[in-house]
Write a structure and sequence with these properties.
alpha/beta; Rossmann fold; 23 helices
Length: about 700
């Protein structure tokens, strides 16, 4: 009995906490409890003695019954133990299967999560492309718009006579209609109609497809003003409803953090160069709504794997390869842009390549606008190298084409951009006028005069995100045209910072900025300093120069100031430039041949009246006070027309006298300056739109 008790305790302990699983719980694993019960019944069949009775054996009936009972219990316990062990083994198998199923479920769940992430990425990409206008050729977009037009008619949001014109916008793949529709897609019919109906204005020009082929774009790749120019112009065009794209080389040093939905296109893309075809990787993404394509050549020379953008011995090869690859890409993708906008000599080769090779490959309606930001850089090269990108040297090395005007044994890529483009622009009207002269034409004055009918200057817009006194973090106090009190705080703070004698706010302060001083600009700056001190005013100069002699003179002026009311600072920093512009009453601009003409615009934006060069007969930024005395609401500053020091000091003297004797009129002049809209969204983008429109059907 003790043994039985111990056996029962052992079995009970081994099964403690075990829960019997119901039959059929796990598919593929059948419960064996039934078979276990069948086997238990056999253990209960105890054979009885045949030849002897209990009495014959000498055993009492009670003892025999006890033995039989004990035997039966032992057999029952053994059978039950066997059953439990079988059940336990089955449970283990079921648990193993459960773990396998759990692992499979986790793998499936991970796959679903990955698919979800991929789908979300694709949706984000489509949304970005939608914003950029990249899916204008997707039929579903226009089909849905056509259905919504039907809905707007049924709900009374539009009239019957308007429906046909609205459908025409969809059938014409109008870029502005796509922009409005994607923006108002979730709105009701009346709100959508209110956005679309203004597009039916007969005076409205349809949106254009403009592709910029260039070598810089802020903040992806930038070494100067070109990068900021590209970004600002593209965004201004995009805001006007145009489809805008940019093609750039994929430099190794690109800053890709600002791009959205960046991905590599699948498939092979080859371009011709040097008698062979080379594979390229193509990357696409968006930057503030503008579609950006990056071309990464897999040429063994590693054209864009260097640290810097320019100034390598093989620059001609690098950029002519890029020009050819850009056109190959447009043809491969079937993009029929209205305008290819080219920039500087690095993309000038696109123009002859376009007309000699690609115009008949689906680009017959495309036209070229070429902008040169600085005609000083032209790229002269031996004619035979034109064949590398597929051009014919014998055909192009002629005086009326790419042959340089002064070195006829060389070809001039910049000249090719001028000759072969439908329109040529530069970055200000004054700079354009100077380039037509022999003195300042950098050897291209003859070519520019021959093509003067297509040459014009467009004044760059002002970057409002960088130059805005109401938001400028560099200023000790911000201000607006409605509240100018912060300007006096800026003046006091600058005087303290530079060690100028504290003075009454009415004492004029003349600021002068020299980004890269030349000999002539140094002469004009020193004349302005003498004039300012002679008028009992204060003078602050901030600038620099790469020319050693000029740098030495500026250092001497900084260390040995001529007067306590004059300070020269050559430890250049952007914050100080902003502070000088904001604190000054007058901004003297000594740069005679500064291409973009930005300094006078910056001065006006900060309520600092500019004194700068203007060319008579050319519409620039400054309207001289003396030219509009009958309507002072138009005046914006004081101008001089020559590079003579006497003319500069005469204009500055007029400004200082006007400030001294006409305080009320001076305040009105400040307001005139600050209320002028020199942003990219104003006259600048309108001028480019007009330039594009002028060449569409030539």
């Amino acid at each position: 009995m003790a043994a039985m008790v111990i056996l029962q305790q052992t079995v009970a302990g081994s099964l403690q906490g075990f829960r019997r699983l119901p039959d059929g719980l796990f598919p593929g694993f059948k419960s064996s409890s039934s078979s276990c019960r069948q086997r238990s019944s056999r253990f209960l069949r105890i054979p009885r003695p045949v030849h002897s009775s209990p009495r014959e054996q000498g055993i009492g009936i009670e003892a025999l019954q006890e033995v039989n009972s004990t035997t039966e219990k032992a057999a029952s316990v053994a059978a039950e133990t066997s059953y439990m062990m079988k059940l336990f083994n089955d449970a283990q198998q079921n648990m193993l299967f459960l773990n396998q199923q759990r692992l499979m479920a986790m793998e499936e769940l991970q796959k679903v999560e990955n698919d979800k992430k991929l789908l979300l990425a694709q949706l984000a990409q489509l949304e970005a492309e939608n914003q950029a206008g990249l899916i204008l050729d997707v039929p579903s977009l226009w089909s849905e718009l056509l259905l919504r037009i039907d809905s707007m008619l049924v709900t009374g949001a539009v009239r019957v006579e308007q429906v046909s014109a609205l459908r025409g916008l969809a059938l014409a793949r109008d870029a502005q209609a796509a922009k409005v529709f994607t923006k108002l897609l979730e709105k009701d019919d009346r709100e959508l109609a209110s956005g679309l109906l203004p597009l039916l204005n007969p005076k409205r020009k349809p949106g254009l497809h403009v592709v910029h082929i260039c070598t810089e774009m802020a903040p992806l790749a930038g070494s100067g003003s070109l990068a900021i120019y590209i970004t600002n112009l593209c965004q201004a065009l995009f805001r006007r409803g145009h489809l805008v794209e940019v093609i750039l080389p994929k430099y190794a040093s690109l800053d890709l953090s600002a791009m959205e939905s960046l991905y590599e296109l699948e498939g092979d893309f080859y371009s011709y160069f040097g008698g062979d075809w080379y594979r390229n990787k193509i990357w696409t993404g968006t930057l503030s709504g503008v579609a950006v394509t990056l071309i990464d050549p897999l040429h063994p020379a590693g054209f864009f794997s260097q640290e810097h953008f320019y100034d390598y011995e093989n620059d001609f090869e690098r950029f002519t390869y890029f020009c050819r690859a850009s056109l190959e890409l447009l043809v491969k993708l079937g993009k029929q842009a209205d305008i290819l906008h080219l920039h500087n000599w690095q993309t000038a080769a696109v123009a002859p390549l376009f007309w000699d090779i690609f115009v008949h490959q689906g680009l017959g309606n495309t036209r070229l606008l070429f902008t040169c930001h600085d005609f000083k850089y032209q790229c002269l090269q031996e004619p035979h190298k034109l064949a590398l990108c597929g051009l014919d040297p014998g055909k192009l090395n002629r005086p009326d084409r790419l042959q340089d005007n002064f070195e006829p044994h060389l070809t001039n890529l910049l000249k090719g951009g001028v000759v072969y483009s439908n329109k040529v622009t530069t970055v200000s009207p004054i700079y354009a006028a100077d380039l037509l002269t022999r003195e300042h034409g950098y050897g291209l004055d003859l070519t520019l005069n021959d093509h003067q009918h297509k040459f014009l200057g467009i004044l760059n817009g002002l970057d409002e995100s960088l130059w805005n006194p109401s938001q400028d973090a560099a200023l000790p106090a911000k201000y607006t045209v409605e509240n100018l009190s912060g300007k006096s705080i800026c003046k006091t703070a600058l005087q303290q910072r530079l060690g100028l004698p504290p003075a009454d706010y009415s004492l004029p302060l003349v600021g002068c900025i020299g980004f890269e001083m030349s000999e002539l600009e140094l002469k004009l700056m020193r004349a302005a300093l003498e004039c300012t001190l002679g008028k009992s005013a204060q003078f602050v100069f901030v600038g620099r120069s790469k020319i050693p002699r000029i740098r030495a003179i500026l250092e001497d002026m900084m260390q040995n100031p001529k007067d306590e009311n004059a300070q020269v600072v050559i430890n250049y920093d952007d914050a100080l430039v902003h502070q000088v512009v904001a604190a000054s009453d007058i901004l003297i601009c000594p740069a005679i041949f500064e291409q973009t003409g930005q300094l006078p615009l910056i001065g006006m934006r900060y309520g600092t009246v500019p004194v700068a060069r203007e060319v008579r007969g050319i519409t620039g930024s400054i309207i001289d006070v003396d030219d509009v005395r009958r309507d002072m609401s138009q005046a914006t500053g004081f101008s001089f027309s020559t590079d003579k020091a006497t003319d500069v000091t005469a204009a500055l003297s007029r400004a200082l006298d006007y400030l001294k004797h006409n305080h009320q009129a001076w305040t009105a002049l400040i307001r005139n300056c600050m209320t002028k809209d020199w942003s990219w969204d104003a006259t600048c983008v309108e001028a480019y739109e007009a330039a594009y429109q002028s060449i569409l059907h030539v």
